[in-house]
Amino acid sequence: MSILDNDIIDTNQEIPANIFVLGIENIQTKALINSIKNQFELHGEIMESFEKIFVENEQSNIILIDCSHYTFSKIFDLLSIKSMRSKNTSIALFNMKKGSRFESLVTSPQIKGIFYTTSQYGTLLSGLDDIIHGKLWLPRHLMQKIVDSHRKLPTFRASSKIFTKREQQILHSICRGHTNQDIATELALSEHTIKSHLYNLFKKHNFRNRLEACAWARDQFETGFEFDKIVNN
Length: 233
Known about the structure:
two-stranded parallel ribbon; elongated; alpha/beta
């Protein structure tokens, strides 16, 4: 249900108790919090640091993260925190630039919504309404990538193929959104060498792109996967 089409919120759906906007306090975030309080009649707060957010484990929570305020690595680390991975916590990213590395975070299961810097304010509220009612608000092209990656997963999930130590390092880095140049600097290798390792990694494990590789790694970690068990020493 969209708040632009109908002012009535379906009361039969479970409504979250808390909504937090993670970012700096400015005109945009203040307006967003006021709209949340007025239109959804929910508790909303602006928090500049995650440590100040008190997540109610017995209640539903929605956390809106401002991508213009945090680096990719910071948000990646936030998504790894146990409380952020709770089934009662839904996360939406806003002020995201199209085509940025932030888009790869869509593979995280707790990400329920993505809003670009070009999104109209009404679109943000409409999407938030859907998230409140347990729906997803994700761009079509990212949804397609998720579907495609999971359709491909069964063909390369077998753990019989051995990861080398270098492949382990590179897979970990690309899951953190690092570019080839970032990885080259981190591992003290040339960018050409990193490209060669990526080519071999993708070909060996049938990954078509970074998104598929990260989706596979995420699923494996959630089922207790440990690299050391399949790394060729």
